[in-house]
């Protein structure tokens, strides 16, 4: 999967969801509720612009992909849910679904800390811990 500008914009939009929710957890001593609303609204407007822009760029630059078509509706649904939920328990559930979604994507399978890669999703199969400087990822796949 080539990482191009439209797909990058979609991933950035997904990553703004915790920011929109998180701004309401900032203490009012640091940020008044008016400023919280302003920041959340600004983030939402930026997300809406990137929603339009990534589709436009994908078609214009002929960079449409099955991966991009899959990501876009999921990102839109998570963004809508995040903005409609104001009960902390619901926000936590949305963040948990967002975390699960991001972790289960093939792009986010493993994180490297020196020579110590670790699989992050239980759906990852075929992963063998590196024994040297080389990590062989050819047997790795994501199970359904």
Short characterization:
The strands form 2 sheets. Strands 1-2 form a two-stranded antiparallel sheet. A two-stranded antiparallel sheet has the order 3-4. With 144 residues, it is mainly alpha-helical. It has helices at residues 5-22, 33-60, 66-84, 88-104, and strands spanning 110-111, 118-119, 124-125, 141-142.
What can you see in these coordinates?
The protein has 144 residues and is mainly alpha-helical. The chain has 2 domains: 5-108; 110-144, no CATH class. The protein has 4 helices and 4 strands; from the N terminus they run H-H-H-H-E-E-E-E. The chain has helices spanning 5-22, 33-60, 66-84, 88-104, and strands at 110-111, 118-119, 124-125, 141-142. A two-stranded antiparallel ribbon has the order 1-2. It has a two-stranded antiparallel ribbon with strand order 3-4. A hairpin with a 6-residue loop joins strand 1 and strand 2 (118-119). The longest helix is centred in the first third of the chain and has 28 residues, at 33-60. It is globular. Residues 108-114 have low confidence and may be disordered.
Query: Which band does the percent of strand residues land in?
Result: 5-15%
User: What is the global morphology?
Assistant: globular
Tell me the structural class: mainly alpha
Unreliable stretches: 108-114
In spatial order, strands of the major sheet run 1-2
N-to-C CA distance: 19 Å
Q: Would you report the number of β strands? A: 4
| Tally of discrete structural domains | 2
Mean pLDDT: 76
Tally of helical segments: 4
